[in-house]
Specification:
Helix content: 10-25%
CATH superfamily of the largest domain: Formyl transferase, N-terminal domain
Distance between the termini: 64 Å
Shape: elongated
CATH topology of the largest domain: Rossmann fold
CATH architecture of the largest domain: 3-Layer(aba) Sandwich
Number of strands: 15
Strand content: 15-25%
Number of helices: 8
Order of helices and strands: EHEEEHEHEHEHEEHHEEEEEEH
Structural class: alpha/beta
Number of domains: 2
CATH class of the largest domain: Alpha Beta
Length: 313
């Protein structure tokens, strides 16, 4: 009979939920779920629970929400559970050495990239923005650095030409849950061989801010297609038509070149919106005005004409 071990799970966003649910269906014991405090969200600024807290309550796990993971009282609260392993999935705070050294199996992180590439909080978005064809999940033993610990296992997946950060996020969250269970099985049987990362090959994927969604029409149509998909749903790709802010939800690069300045609306069919870029032309497919709802471009143009020569900025 497979041995069961005691786990403290640490995570915050939707990405972490499938791993917690997978642990609930396993033979192991989740002693406590640690997540970020409830915070105001949205336009109404109503206090909202983190997705991991919502899942933990549904699964009937004790929830601990410290303001800081580094205080002595927080460390003692976790120590009292006597965990065999800390499972960390997009928790949102750097763990102090006293926590990392606490469990006998250490602290295991589930990270959404093939380390050492794309360390940091934005690996899914930047892999798409940078035009990568493949990405994946890495489980690693955490140390005091930012995603710098020894690699345990990896799993790869293709980045599809239609993938957005949203669709890839959902696929990787499931892949992460499966890979962690596999990591845990090998950990309990003692046949894991942690491998140091090659730090010379590391890249960093910073968190995107709202302003980072602004489209730079000087880039190529191929790069802008990847950019739009990489910032969907957050922070969203946007441009300006005069003072009006437009959100570009979906687009595709067209073959051929353009003589117009980047950002210029080109000649096309009445139901098309073709934009010159630094290299090639981008065909806009779905769009949204600041106060409107998402629309396909043909419907949008009926109410908001954008004649040839219009310049977006």
């Amino acid at each position: 009979m497979e041995q069961s071990i005691n786990i403290v799970f640490m995570g915050t966003p939707d990405f972490a939920v499938p791993t917690l649910e997978a642990l609930h269906d396993s033979s192991d014991h989740v002693l406590m779920v640690v997540t970020q405090p409830d915070r105001p969200q949205g336009r109404g600024r109503k206090t909202a629970q983190t997705p991991v807290k919502q899942a933990a309550v549904r699964l009937d796990y004790p929830v601990f929400q410290p303001a800081s993971i580094k205080t002595e009282s927080t460390i003692q609260t976790i120590r009292k559970t006597e965990p065999d392993v800390l499972v960390v999935v997009a928790f949102g705070q750097i763990l102090p050495p006293d926590l990392l050294s606490m469990p006998r199996y250490g602290a295991v992180n589930v990270h959404a990239s093939l380390l050492p590439r794309y360390r940091g909080p934005g690996p899914i978005q930047w892999a798409i923005i940078n035009g990568e064809s493949r990405t994946g999940i890495t489980t690693m033993l955490m140390d005091q650095g930012m995603d710098t610990g020894d690699i345990l296992l990896t799993a790869e997946t293709d980045i599809r030409s239609t993938d957005t950060a949203g669709t890839l996020h959902d696929r990787l969250s499931i892949l992460g849950a499966d890979l962690f269970l596999k990591t845990l099985r090998h950990m309990k049987s003692g046949d894991l061989s942690p491998k140091p990362q090659n730090h010379d090959l590391s890249t960093y994927a910073p968190m995107l801010k709202k302003a980072d969604g602004r489209i730079n029409w000087q880039k190529s149509a191929v790069a802008l297609d990847a950019f739009i998909r990489g910032v969907t749903p957050w922070p969203g790709a946007f441009t300006f038509h005069g003072e009006r802010r437009l959100k570009i939800l979906r687009a595709s690069p067209l073959r051929g070149s353009s003589r117009d300045a980047p950002g210029t609306v080109e000649r096309g069919f009445a139901d098309e919106l073709r934009i010159a870029t630094g290299e090639g032309v981008l065909l806009i497919q779905d769009i949204q005005s600041a106060s409107g709802k998402p629309m396909n471009v043909a419907d949008f143009l009926r109410g908001h004409p954008m004649p040839e020569g219009t310049v977006l900025s």
